[in-house]
Sequence to fold (443 residues):
Amino acid sequence: MSAYTIIGAGPVGTLLALLLGRRGARVRVLERRADPRRSAPERGRSINLALAARGIAALERAGLAGTVAPQMIGMRGRLLHELDGALQFLPYGQNAGEIIYAVSREALNRTLLDAAAAQPGIELVFDARCLDVDPCAGGLQWRDERTGQLHAESFELLLGADGAGSAVRSALIARGFTQASEVPLAHDYRELDIARGSALPGDGFVFAPDALHIWPRGGFMLIALPNTDGSFTATLFLPRSGPVSFERLATPADVLGFFGSEFPDAAAVIDDPVAQFMRHPQGRLGTLYCEGWQAAGRVLLLGDAAHAIVPFHGQGLNCGFEDCLVLERLLDAAPAPRDAFARFEPARREDTRAIAAMALENYVEMRDAVRSASFTERRTLGQALEREFPGRFITRYAMVMFHPEIPYAEAQRRAVQQDQVVDALLAGAPRADAGRLLTQAGL
Fold:
């Protein structure tokens, strides 16, 4: 059985180690950060993740879905907070099982690491910063961040699961194996904590806990996801520069005035929003387009290291977990790991490009389109068609979030075909012709 070195002990790298370990492989995982089970969580990264069907399927494969379940809070839909205080609830789906789940990045990562540490054949090495990878020679260089000691060692197979800033990808680019470009989003983000309402009766949540809360404001938005302790994690997405932007929030008075005017109900429950805003880092967002995910049959990139996306469809984690399942299937079918490595990028490229595009589109929907009458009209008609033609018409959101058997690229294509049907019906085509229009659209 082959031996694997994995760079990156985040959720994707650790899940991958577990799946490989269950196959009987020897796995060594190197992580540049300290062991998160013994250190404070890193600020500046999103502390909430969204788990949907694709990610849950991967956890089930690893035998951990039941272990993670107590950490998850089900969200049945979006709850829109209008400027005048009005609330509008938009269910994600049409049946009780169509739910997405908020989960703490820290808690999920700790659970995966505990499982990996308990599994024979898996070694976890923290404070180990990858410096260089030579695919042809099978050489790895890394530095112990605690002692400064340099290490040079050989590897049989190496998997780069070290995120959007991947050191493995940088090494492959430097050697001409890989090309990559990042398209930054013109919007950044900052996180704010909403504490549990200790004076409130019942569960103590200051907002409904079974929803993703959104304050859509056209060119920007605030969102809040529930946590199991009764708190919420809010994230402000705002242009980096311009008339309404982070650069215009330079003073405490700017911040206080902005939150008071744009998000009054949220500002009322955020503990000292000015201090939090000034203290918490401002994060960047972007989409990574990468070609050449494998090198010399020995090195493979996956997850954000190969295809980082913006977070607005809640699919970054789910897509990375799905990568792990796809690689496992390819390893089952291939005569040798190098063959699976060669087949991985062709198997995933179209799907990862599709979800990258849909994530960008979903940002516009979340911050702006959800407020429009045309969005409501199209959404209502789409859900009616989904009920009338089950299996033939499935809303794009449902295909992405609740149907892991439908690849992302197919969901994207089918959504275009379905939009043609919706367009025709809204333009005056008889409703009785809906079945015929679906057939004409190839559905």
